[in-house]
Amino acid sequence: MAKKDWLDRLFDLHSLMISTQSDNEAAECRKKINKLLTQHGKTANDTAELLAIVVERRSSASPPPPSPRPQPPPGDPVTGLVLLEGIRAICKEFLSLEEHEYLVLALWCMHAYVFSRFMCTPRLILRSAVRDCGKTSTLSVIEGFVPNAKKIGQCDGGDLFPLH
What we know:
Blueprint: H1 6-19, H2 23-39, H3 47-60, H4 80-94, H5 99-111, H6 135-143, E1 153-155, E2 158-160
Antiparallel strand pairs: 1-2
Helix pairs in contact: 1-2, 1-3, 4-5, 4-6
């Protein structure tokens, strides 16, 4: 890989600035961008043209070869559907819920592995007007399917788990 020059650094800072959720991080990027522009005799008005140069340069460079997709071990083809049905079946075995609620739990457990790739994510809320109806049991069952499950407190007698 070729060494990055100041235009690549400018492009990376600009990308970070427009993608970050942190106002402080965006402000820090703006400062660094202005410093880079000043060092090279450019102004903020030149930014679009400079970014276009990097885009053109990167698109004309030969793309890296695609990385091979990891293959499941022979004889063990676990697909997303197989995993979904497996989680759903285990929930069905240990919990007494409405039919659609088993699917919701299974989808939420699978989503817990990839939630950081999304800007928005669903939250799982277990509520009931009566005590001892299975909220904690539900959390105990899905705890085995959620990565890094940690109890963080209680709400209306039930335990709470964060997604991460």
